[in-house]
Amino acid sequence: MKIKLLTLLLFITCPCLLLAQEGDQWSDKVYSVEGKWKIQEDSGVLYFELGSDFMTLAGPDLKVYLSPIAIQDIDDRDAIDKKGGVMIAGLKSNKGAQKYPIPEGIQPSDYKSLVIFCPKFSVVWGGVSLETESKVE
Fold first, then answer.
1. Global confidence as pTM
2. Tens digits of per-residue pLDDT, 114-127?
3. Closest by Cα among 114, 106, 119 to 132
4. Whole-angstrom Cα distance, residue 13 to residue 66?
5. Is residue 40 pLDDT above 80, yes or no?
6. Please, which residues have CB within 8 angstroms of residue 53's CB and are 6 or more apart in sequence?
7. Strand-pair partners of 104
8. pLDDT value for 81
9. Contact yes or no for 80/88 (Cβ under 8 A)
10. DSSP letter for each residue of 35-51
């Protein structure tokens, strides 16, 4: 009984401990984005990771955001950072494996999409749906 109660309490207070999200289906907006991605917990920290097969066109100011807007509802030039989006980090490279810590207190399950966005020119490269791509492992 105590173990079941503790498991339920952990799930309610931090669902990230029991949920891993991953996929490889990107929704292109202005430019093509491809490759595997995942969100997972490691040593108590949530990370967004891009696989070694990740690739997109280079840009002047690319950043990775979590957005409350579903990827299919994001227009080509939506200002993600001005519509409730949370920046995870600046994109280190337009190709290859990368790993970014998600800011403390941010739960990906509270967002509908993960987006690569250029705030300098207000251009959405592409993104993934966290609603349809996610799965429990």
1. 0.79
2. 999 999 999 999 99
3. 114
4. 20
5. yes
6. 34, 35, 36
7. none
8. 87
9. no
10. S-EEEEEETTEEEEEE-
